[in-house]
Amino acid sequence: MKIGRHHIGKVVEVRWSDPNYGKTDLAALRRGRAALAVWREYGVVHDITDGVVILVHSYGTLDEKPDKDDEVCFTALPEDLIDTIRVLILEPTEAK
């Protein structure tokens, strides 16, 4: 699925088909896309380059500077393996 650049910076749910490895008897072997594991991942679309979407799940820093991230957890997903993408709407909440 082609992911548009308008998704960059958005919080999304991505459903994608993951290459799979397993052991089974030959009669039970799935074929085609049914053989792929299906994942739903949540994060922020950080980049789309060369058909690869970078989905960032979390950022971290030892300094308390919001503009400096020391570490990032992400998934790199080929667009061809993405089945659906949904933009999530953030709802502000007040601290109690």
Question: What features would you describe in this structure?
Answer:
The chain has 96 residues and is an all-beta fold. Helix content is 0%, strand content 46%. The chain is built from no helices and 5 strands. It has strands at residues 11-18, 37-49, 52-60, 71-78, 82-87. It has a 5-stranded antiparallel sheet, with no helix packed on it. A hairpin with a 2-residue loop joins strand 2 (37-49) and strand 3. The protein is elongated and about 55 Å long. The chain starts with 10 loop residues before the first strand and ends in a 9-residue tail after the last strand.
Labels describing this entry:
single chain, 96 residues, mainly beta, five-stranded antiparallel sheet, 46% strand, elongated
Instruction: Return Rg in Å.
Output: 17 Å
Proportion of residues in helical segments: under 10%
User: Which strands sit side by side, in order, in the main sheet?
Assistant: 4-3-2-1-5
Largest sheet: 5 strands, antiparallel
**Stretches where pLDDT falls below 50 for ≥5 residues?**
none
- Which structural class should the secondary elements be placed in? mainly beta
Report the order of strands and helices.
EEEEE
Average of per-residue pLDDT values: 90
Query: In DSSP terms, counting alpha (H) and pi (I) runs of 4 or more, how many helices?
Result: 0
Total number of strands = 5
